UniProtKB/TrEMBL annotation:
<feature type="domain" description="NlpC/P60">
    <location>
        <begin position="1"/>
        <end position="121"/>
    </location>
</feature>
<keyword id="KW-0378">Hydrolase</keyword>
<dbReference type="InterPro" id="IPR038765">
    <property type="entry name" value="Papain-like_cys_pep_sf"/>
</dbReference>
<keyword id="KW-0645">Protease</keyword>
<protein>
    <submittedName>
        <fullName>Glycoside hydrolase</fullName>
    </submittedName>
</protein>
<comment type="similarity">
    <text>Belongs to the peptidase C40 family.</text>
</comment>
<dbReference type="GO" id="GO:0006508">
    <property type="term" value="P:proteolysis"/>
</dbReference>
<keyword id="KW-0732">Signal</keyword>
<dbReference type="Pfam" id="PF00877">
    <property type="entry name" value="NLPC_P60"/>
</dbReference>
<keyword id="KW-0788">Thiol protease</keyword>
<dbReference type="InterPro" id="IPR052062">
    <property type="entry name" value="Murein_DD/LD_carboxypeptidase"/>
</dbReference>
<dbReference type="InterPro" id="IPR000064">
    <property type="entry name" value="NLP_P60_dom"/>
</dbReference>
<dbReference type="GO" id="GO:0008234">
    <property type="term" value="F:cysteine-type peptidase activity"/>
</dbReference>
Amino acid sequence: MIKIARSYTGVPYRIGGNDEQGIDCSGLLCNTFKEFGIKLPRVSWQQSEFFPAIDIPNIRTGDLVFFSVNGKVVNHAGIVTEVRSEDEVIFIHASTSKGVIEDNMMTNYWKARFASACRPDFGK
């Protein structure tokens, strides 16, 4: 799953986008899971409710993470690509300014906007 998501690294951000010409955060998740025959909802707040929720101390590679960037509604999503320590949890997402990149979700910026996490169920 991580390999598929990383294949989009560097693709520019485009709202509503879902291909190599431009992609948004929920499109990145949709395209990644489509490779496994799983049809995720197209918007991030619905994606956040699709799989069972987990707590941050239990987070691991492959988990989905969701953020409220502009207020209280979940409007940003990513996939955890590496858990290096409790202070360094790397996730891939579609940044509006930098396209598809990996960031540490334990920075002050992302921690302040964290909304939830869930663990994919590939039997769904």
